[in-house]
Specification:
The chain folds into three domains: 129 residues, Alpha-helical ferredoxin (Fumarate Reductase Iron-sulfur Protein, Chain B, domain 2); 164 residues, FAD/NAD(P)-binding domain, CATH 3.50.50.60; 139 residues, FAD/NAD(P)-binding domain (3-Layer(bba) Sandwich). Helix content is 33%, strand content 17%. The chain has 18 helices and 15 strands. The strands form four sheets. A five-stranded parallel β-sheet has the order 3-2-1-4-15. Strands 6-13-7-8-9 form a five-stranded parallel β-sheet. The chain has a three-stranded antiparallel β-sheet with strand order 10-11-12, with no helix packed on it.
């Protein structure tokens, strides 16, 4: 039991996560954050106020029992702490790395009223890594088999989270993945230096040991339809968790030029096709070495793109964002790391044309400076062009990272699945039931692009809705 008075705990400084040197890491794909050792973890855990009504758990989309697992760290029971997290979170080593805790559990921590929040994400990562390194994974016990089966479409965070909850309820679960590797956006979208592929593989392997079945290279809507899964293959329920993988572009001249990528394509080629391990693997991207790279956007994907380009040997790596740095949706930690590594961050800068040579290759990005006006529907101040402020940034590679929209494949092959005007699947916000009996949907294919942990929260909600449907038969 933590016997330090709250007043003293509030004076204890938040422990800093050790990191690789910025100039060294900027040229390799090794993980940037190095994690806590037991001494640092214990010191940080002692800062917890052990609130009677923990607001941190309320702020967590998957409702991890933060107070309980932190107390287990204080007690020195690191494996118990990891097992406590796994009661609610099927992917703790992943969320401990990429979850925006500052906007969720840590953002709701009562300590923020007086000082820095408890480093909940760092502690979660510590116990998940400790568990992995000891090889003693705390696997929850499954309920007796129900005889019911669920097909999950997509092996990203929503699908994996739902699979963990449903297998624990005793249902048979099979996850279908369109690509050749499991993990969805966790493997194709997030770079190795933020989330090592081995971590994702380990978490998937834990689910496999729990009884979840996986099948890759199955494109639902082409290989097999939703109707065929239910009518021909006998699945009692289907959870659609395909994400929102259709890239958006700027709609400006020159986007057809050679050297222009969507962030989706660029990161998929680097991460899934192993460009980050060149020359061991043939480089499946237009060579960034000794070239000027411009990335457009202000979110985590834009940060991933520009930091990846730098690691591939770019001569310069520039990020253009049309609003101010204060309004960037990217995590503050990612922005800090990017600037430390030498990224040229140009806020209030909006590309208006991509310029090419006579052979059709990109040579530059014409930009216009912006100023902020009144807030728009997002609540952020609207960027307004400044007349006569155009400049050209030299570039041989441009990466567009301004968001994604719904991939229409499943919707187009499932006519009785209702969608909204943006072609996202409509689902009840509480149960995640769709217009089609037995079919549930959640994550980015319902909400549009969001965070890993919000998708996991949707997966848990869907699992609850599916279990209720399979148990009662009520729709």
């Amino acid at each position: 039991m933590n016997t330090i008075p709250n007043k003293e705990r509030m004076k204890m400084p938040r422990q800093h996560m050790p990191e690789r040197d910025a100039l060294v890491r900027a040229r390799n794909f090794e993980e940037v954050n190095l994690g806590f050792q037991p001494e640092l973890a214990n010191q940080e855990a002692l800062r917890c106020l052990a609130c009677a009504k923990p607001t941190c758990t309320r702020g967590c989309p998957v409702a991890v029992k933060v107070k309980d697992f932190v107390q287990l760290i204080i007690d020195g029971d690191y494996l118990g702490a990891a097992a406590k997290i796994r009661e609610d979170n099927a992917l703790p080593a992943i969320t401990g790395r990429v979850c925006p805790q500052e906007d969720q559990c840590e953002g709701d921590c009562l300590m923020t009223k007086r000082t820095d929040s408890l480093a909940i994400g760092h502690l979660e990562r510590f116990v998940a890594d400790y568990e992995r390194e000891t090889g003693q994974i705390g696997i929850p016990v499954n309920a007796p088999a129900t005889g019911k089966s669920v097909a999950i479409v997509g092996s990203g965070p929503a699908g994996l989270s739902a699979a963990g909850d449903l297998i624990q309820k005793g249902h048979r679960v099979r996850v279908f993945e369109a690509l050749h590797e499991l993990g969805g956006v966790l493997v194709y979208g997030i770079p190795e230096f933020r989330l090592p592929k081995a971590i994702v593989k380990q978490e998937v392997d834990v689910l496999r040991r729990r009884g979840v079945e996986f099948e890759t290279n199955v494109v639902i809507g082409k290989t097999v339809t939703i109707d065929e899964l239910m009518n021909d293959e006998g699945y009692d329920a289907v959870f659609v968790a395909t994400g929102a993988g259709l890239p958006q572009f700027l709609g400006i001249p020159g986007e057809h030029l050679n050297g222009v990528y969507s962030a989706n394509e660029f990161l998929t080629r680097v991460n899934l096709m192993r460009a980050y391990r060149f020359p061991e693997y043939d480089e499946p991207v237009y060579d960034c070495r000794d070239k000027d790279v411009v990335v457009v956007g202000g979110g985590n994907t834009a940060m991933d793109g520009v930091r990846t380009a730098l690691r591939l040997g770019a001569r310069s790596a520039t990020l253009c964002y049309r609003r101010s740095e204060a309004e960037m949706p990217a995590r503050k930690e990612e922005v800090k790391h990017a600037k430390e590594e030498g990224i040229d961050l140009r806020a209030l800068t909006n590309p208006i044309e991509l310029i090419g040579d006579e052979r059709g290759w990109l040579t530059g990005v014409r930009c216009q400076e912006m100023e902020l006006g009144e807030p728009d529907e997002s609540g952020r101040r609207r960027p307004i062009p400044i007349e006569g402020s155009e400049t050209i940034i030299p570039a041989q590679v441009a990466i567009i990272a301004i968001g994604t929209s719904a991939n229409p494949l499943i919707q187009s092959t499932t006519p009785d699945l209702k969608t909204n005007k943006r072609n996202y699947i409509e689902a009840d916000p509480e149960t995640l039931r769709t217009s089609k009996r037995g079919v549930f949907a959640g994550g980015d294919i319902v909400t549009g692009a969001a965070t890993v942990i919000l998708a996991m929260g949707a997966g848990r909600k869907a699992a609850k809705g599916i279990d209720n449907y399979l148990t009662t038969g009520e729709w």
